[in-house]
Design goal:
With 421 residues, the protein is an alpha/beta fold. Helix content is 34%, strand content 25%. The longest helix is centred in the first third of the chain and has 25 residues. Bound molecules: adenosine-5'-diphosphate, aspartic acid and magnesium ion.
């Protein structure tokens, strides 16, 4: 099937029935331009947060399988309502959940990766002239277990569908007008970017810029799918186009600043300084599907034959991580494991920093001038991240945004509320 556009609408865009009718109008507009339209929707408003709260009211540690069973219901509501809204406006439409489509994932509850998407039924409906409305965020394993893709995962559903269907473009409609130089909720004078490369967007997303799910950007890069982030509430605005770095004109050394407040630092003290200790620790964490981000191993204390290993993980993996550490205490012979929850990871990202010395020094000097202590540092060729105290996070982002020349004279418009959980 040719001429396919995938449109994805986030929670704020479908927060109530009036907004769903508005989304239906945006879909029909795209269809009237002559496209075959596949729509991916998130759960309405803060539904996913509300469902998680219900689970936590029942038990502090709900099973992951039942969590997926519960969370997947949110998107089920939106697809049916949007299909009804389209039909009511005279547009032939059909809703499909992940099981009906065949969005096959690995069997990892609450953060599954998509393995394969079956396209035959979608293509059949498109050939019949229907708009196909598909539930984001959810998947299904080979043995018909329901999974979800992690918070914000509807973006990944949309981009993966665009890749599988060989779509012309994937449009991510949200509550801001595109990708900004930083979160406009933190820095209202953030500048909207006309374009950004997959690589930079990936670093920003992994750095905590939740305007796009990190795996959505990874998937777009693999399939070379052009992705446009745009506003549901300002349909004529062209938003931000995400494309290959070779198609970009690089100007400033830093393109954007991101902050991630969802990580926790674990410090394992006085670990035996032997070959294989780090391998054992990180193997065991990987077996439990715990992703590790920053890692630092301190200089070995030769006399004691020990060193410290510090690493960061997602907040939600702390209990699992501490259980793993307890199990391998005998092998690592560490003295204690500390959990530091009051941290934020601040990242500056830019393809233009390659081959320009002094960017890291400028970042560290800016933080030092604010009296902010750096707890860990990690770099890639287009990113520098520093771990700092959580309560200094917004000050750090604003100062770095200014110092790297990213402030704009305009105030960004943000439509949605912050999740209250
Ligand atoms: P949706 O429900 O549509 O998926 P999200 O809340 O997941 O929306 O993502 C949009 C939000 O991402 C914005 O409201 C904004 O606060 C946040 N955000 C963080 N970093 C950025 C950035 N660099 N550019 C734009 N928005 C950003
Ligand atoms: N509804 C899910 C969430 O709130 C998925 C998404 O919106 O992308 O995380
Ligand atoms: Mg989102």
């Amino acid at each position: 099937m040719k001429n396919i556009i995938v449109q994805k609408f986030g929670g704020t865009s479908v927060a109530d029935t009036e907004k769903i009718k508005n989304v239906a109008r945006a879909v029909i507009r795209e269809k009237n331009l002559g496209h075959n339209v596949v729509v991916v929707v998130s759960a309405m408003g803060h539904t996913t947060d509300m469902l998680l709260k219900l689970a936590r009211d029942i038990t502090p540690n709900p099973s992951l399988r039942e969590t997926d069973m519960l969370l997947s219901t949110g998107e089920g509501v939106s697809i049916a309502l949007l299909a009804m809204a389209l039909q009511a406006q005279g547009c032939d439409a059909v809703s499909m959940n992940a099981m009906q489509v065949g969005i096959i994932t690995e069997k990892v509850h609450t953060k599954a990766r998509i393995l394969e998407i079956k396209t035959d039924k979608i293509n059949k409906y498109l050939e019949e002239g229907k708009v196909v409305v598909i539930a984001g965020f959810q998947g299904i394993t080979e043995d018909l277990e329901i999974t979800t893709l992690g918070r914000g995962g509807s973006d990944t559903s949309a981009v993966a569908l665009a890749g599988a269907l060989n779509a012309e473009r994937c449009d991510i409609y949200t509550d801001v007008e595109g990708v900004y130089t930083t979160d406009p909720r933190i820095v209202p004078c953030a500048s909207k970017l006309k374009q950004i490369s997959y690589e930079e967007m990936m670093e920003l997303a992994f750095g905590g810029a939740n305007v796009l799910h990190p795996r959505a950007v990874e998937t777009a890069k693999v399939h070379k799918t052009p992705v446009r982030v745009r506003s549901t509430f300002k349909l004529d605005d062209s938003g931000t186009l995400i494309l290959g770095v070779d198609e970009m004109e690089i100007q400033k050394p830093v393109t954007g600043v991101a902050s991630d407040l969802k990580q926790v630092r674990i410090v394992v003290c006085d670990v035996k300084d032997n070959p294989g200790t780090a391998a054992l620790l990180f193997d065991r964490l990987a077996q439990e599907n715990i992703s590790v981000d920053m890692i630092i191993q301190s200089y070995a204390r030769k006399d004691l034959h020990t060193n410290d290993i510090a690493f960061t993980i997602d907040k939600e993996d702390v209990d699992k991580t501490m259980s793993v550490l307890e199990l391998i205490k005998g092998d690592l012979e560490y003295s204690r494991a500390l959990v530091d929850e009051k941290i934020a990871k601040i990242s500056i990202v830019g393809a233009g920093m390659v081959g320009r010395p002094g960017i890291a020094a400028k970042m560290f000097r800016t933080l030092a001038n604010l009296g902010i202590n750096i707890k860990m540092i990690a770099t890639s060729d287009i990113k520098i991240s520093c771990l700092v105290d959580k309560d200094k996070s917004n000050d750090a982002v604003s100062a770095l945004h200014t110092v790297f020349g990213l402030d704009s004279n305009e105030i960004a418009e943000v439509k949605g509320d912050l999740p209250n959980i």
